[in-house]
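User: Design a sequence. Structure:
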């Protein structure tokens, strides 16, 4: 019976998180980004020079966030060149962690896939521990038409629902020129 109640609570939480999804049209000088905003998440504009940042409700003492930037750059990502830069990424993250007192738990390797709108998405990331909390940070590069979008997400590792919501936002992101 306890297992049944646990599963039911999990399903209800997942349903509540996706219960209301609103499509947002984010306009910049470089183009338009179309992305779904999960229930309870807010949007802030021009945070530290970043055009759009979505913030989750606070869970486990932490608000997850994901940013969206339409770079305006006409660029196709080359997986071979990105793999060569992967070493630099790992080194940069290691140096950052040493500087701030964090511990790298895992480097999330480069991965490419097509989202639901047929846009190529390339992701890379890292999980790390900082001040007794574990985080997942991922960068996403989305080839949208002939332009490149960039997105960066930070979630507390134990806030798995937030991580899944971010992944679904990326899988459904679209653009207009």
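Assistant: Done.
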């Amino acid at each position: 019976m306890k297992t049944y109640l646990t599963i039911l609570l999990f399903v209800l939480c997942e349903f509540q998180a996706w219960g209301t999804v609103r499509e947002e049209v984010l306009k910049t000088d470089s183009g338009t980004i179309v992305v779904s905003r999960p229930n309870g998440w807010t949007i802030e504009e021009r945070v530290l020079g970043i055009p759009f940042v979505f913030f989750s409700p606070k869970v486990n003492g932490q608000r997850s966030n994901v940013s969206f930037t339409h770079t305006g750059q006409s660029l196709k990502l080359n997986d071979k060149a990105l793999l060569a830069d992967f070493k630099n990424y790992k080194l940069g993250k290691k140096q950052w962690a040493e500087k701030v007192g964090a511990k790298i738990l895992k480097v999330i390797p480069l991965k490419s896939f097509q989202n639901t709108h047929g846009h190529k998405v390339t992701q890379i990331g890292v999980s790390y521990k900082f001040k007794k909390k574990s985080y997942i940070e991922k960068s996403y590069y989305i080839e949208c038409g002939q332009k490149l979008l960039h997105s960066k997400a930070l979630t507390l590792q134990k806030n798995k629902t937030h991580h899944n919501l971010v992944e679904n936002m990326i899988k459904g992101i679209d653009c207009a020129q």
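Confidence is low (pLDDT under 50) at residues 2-18. The two ends are 53 Å apart (CA to CA).
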